[in-house]
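Follow-up to my post from last week.
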Amino acid sequence: MASVEKIVDPDKARRKIKADRRMREIMANYYMEAKTPKAQRGKKIAWITSGGPVEPLHAMDVIPIYPENYGAMIGASKMGVPLCEKSEEMGYARDLCSYARADIACATVAGGPIGGLPEPDMLVCCNNICGTVLKWYEVQARYYNVPLFILDTPITHTTFNDDMRRYVTRQSEEYIAFLEMACGRRFDYDRMKTVGDLSIRGQQLWQEILDTTMHKPAPMTCFDAFFHLAMIVTLRGTQTAVDYYEMLLAEMKERVAQGIGMLPVEKYRLVWDNLPIWYRLRWLSEKFMERSACLVADTYTSGWTSWMPYVDQTDFLGFMGESYARIFLNSGTDLMAENIVRMVKKYDAHGVVFHSNRSCKPYSFGQYDIQRIVQKKLGIPTLMIEADMVDERSFSESQVETRIDAFIEMLG
Amino acid sequence: MITAGVDVGSISAKAAIVQDGELLTTCVILTGYNSRDAGRQVYDQALAQLTMQAGRIDKIVATGYGRNSIDFADKAVTEITCHAAGAHYLDPQIRSIIDIGGQDSKAIVLDDTGRVKDFTMNDKCAAGTGRFLEVMARALQVDLDAFGTLSLAADKAAPISSLCTVFAESEVISLIAKGASRVNIIAGIHASIGARVVSMAKRIGVRPPVMMTGGVAKNIGVVRALEAKLATTLRVSEYAQLTGAIGAALLAAR
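User reply:
Got it. Predicted complex:
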């Protein structure tokens, strides 16, 4: 019996991305520095949401730590279920985001990947990604007894007006004042200029890397992007990220030049929507690979460049509030659907795979409408997978496998 | 060319044998603990009904939840594609299918050649499935086979609002305690399945003529409840439960 022929791939070693090793080193060093005892490291630590403006932290030499990146690590190392259960014992509802549940629980136990996160000196929360982060960060501010700054970004359904602009610009100023108070010194505007330039450069490079998959065969898949994304999230605004992405881009360009695809056979090209299912990355990537289906692009990893049109290189700080308010996830269903339609065309995809993520409400809420819009505008098949990014209890292997199989059968 | 389809579901295993587009025989048994053995057994029984040797079969397609455990099949195809092929064979006019099996419910929209255009399935939940009906039959101490006919005698379907099998069971128990009649409770159960499955089917643009497939199609009460919600009549073939196996046998010939 074989619905799926096992593909023997003599070029497996050649397909491996060589930059992976350097990436692991950088991330290890990043966490090592952060986990060095405070007296030795000197620098303060701020926990920040994944879509929060991190650049001012770098300008003030504060180490940013991302509980959401840590949530992904918890998911990928399959530690999500016991931590989610622990948070439920603490009284948090199972319907809450699994990143929030896992992080809140992890703070109270000695454990988790890399033995837990270093304790914060301050918290920076931006609600451009969801509303959950407000309560999540309030909980942690009480737990660690540290100051919390909240940047409130109005949702950009379709347009951004002057009132919204003033509202977020004013808060950017308050953010600087908060940092001056928390760090006990004046804000370094010169350094900020450099950090802003590096942030923009990093995003440009990241987008260029993602765009190499326009080539057929695609030199990488979204499963690779999920891994290499960690740098644009955690080290955005640093020379390290720029240097690394230059190296990765060169490797991708080389793969394109040599015609090295990530899949042995690339028959179908697909777009992924929503966060990864972290504890099933390998399983999913193999399922799609065995069916010669290449996930060439995704809305998630490109989310970190979705505000680039609104950034002003000459006045990063002045436009910071607006650009962060206008990220993909803080927009309305129409803009989200438009984005997917644009991606399908750009990457010449045959279908879209939606992950209906139980944890991430703002990302998953409009998916049925988006699915309908995509089908209407493009007439291509779409697939809906119900799961969760970290909580494995919301994943049913045989159901997901049947859906993937039926979807591929539909693609013909 | 003689081909076979083996459909191993969560509750029953089905087999169909087809020769050049003509259905030769079908067979249904309970799946039980071992889906692999059930697949072998139902296939052997179908062959025995024809007094045919296994060597005469040119190709076999396995489908259903146990499809990947059927090691004697040439290929595995999902039940979604197989139901579409089977329904198209039984009635080429069919454009949509509502399939309710043991552990899942699906809606499929197909084109005029029997190919799947879109599909949707229930989430990880037993509500609106054959298993849901089994639980309810036990709570009401009624033989499942009598469920459909009994519900037709209802004068007013009892309201069952919960979407969860376990909660719905407690609702049923409260209704019994309140003295609601058995037939009205059964009609309420069917109405709740109808509402759940139809809202799912409408999402992918279900359009007539609609065929109902899967084991639950044998329950006239569910069929009527679906028809009321869809505002159209359902076509139910005598081979409703075997549609997937027949589709698998047909696809094996391609």
